[in-house]
Amino acid sequence: MLKTNLLKKTKKKFTRHHSDRYKRLRKAWRKPKGIDNCVRRRFKGKTLMPNIGYGSDKNTRNLSRRGLYKIKIQNCDDLNMFIMSNRIIECEISRNISRKNKIEILKKARELDIKLSNPPRQEKL
Questions:
Q1: What is the pLDDT confidence band of residue 98, given thresholds at 50, 70 and 90?
Q2: Where are the beta strands (DSSP E) in the chain?
Q3: What ranges in 1-125 are assigned the alpha helix state H?
Q4: Rounded CA gap, 109 and 120, in Å?
Q5: Dihedral angle, C-alpha 63, 68, 72, 76, nearest 10 °
Q6: Residue 90 burial by CB count (10 A; 0-12/13-18/19+): exposed, middle or buried?
Q7: Under a CB-based contact definition with an 8 Å cutoff, are residues 88 and 115 in contact?
Q8: Comparing C-alpha atoms, which of 54, 48, 49, 50 is closest to residue 9?
Q9: Coil, strand or helix: which one is 25?
Q10: Least C-beta-crowded within 10 Å: which of 24, 31, 94, 107?
Q11: How far apart are the first and last CA of the chain?
């Protein structure tokens, strides 16, 4: 794996035009389609629309700050898929997993030398 500079852009939150003005409009981005719409026509000082220039660098696109790909796991069996790629990935335990199962996953990850981005707190391990 090539070492690249992990300088990542800050992700801009694009909000829907006039979502701050009207409560009935949700914050989620929708492209304006009106013929006179100032955002669609890109007037100066108006809300910016998302475009391809806001994308990340192709080499660092799905990488975490440690330079590894982050993958969500649900159980111990999911760890078996990543035995061969434990140098380029880090696993993240899903939020709705019980504490008992998180500890099992942690033990299995230590056996297989797989990094966890959110290991359970170790009080009595």
A1: very high
A2: 69-73, 89-93, 115-116
A3: 76-79, 99-112
A4: 12
A5: 170
A6: buried
A7: no
A8: 54
A9: coil
A10: 24
A11: 34
Q: What is the pLDDT of residues 22-49, one digit of tens each?
A: 999 999 999 999 999 999 999 999 999 9
User: Computed over its alpha carbons, how large is the radius of gyration of the chain?
Assistant: 21
Q: Return the structure tokens found at 61.
A: 């696109």
In whole angstroms, what is the distance from residue 63 CA to residue 2 CA?
12
Question: Quick check: 117 and 96 in contact, CB under 8 A?
Answer: no
Q: What is the pLDDT of residue 2?
A: 56
Q: Vertex 43, ends 39 and 45: CA angle to 5°?
A: 95
Look-up of token digits 């649900």? 74
Specify the pTM. 0.65
At 56, is the pLDDT very low, low, confident or very high (cuts 50, 70, 90)? confident
What is the 8-class DSSP label of residue 122? Answer: -
Cα 71 to the chain's mean position, in Å? 10
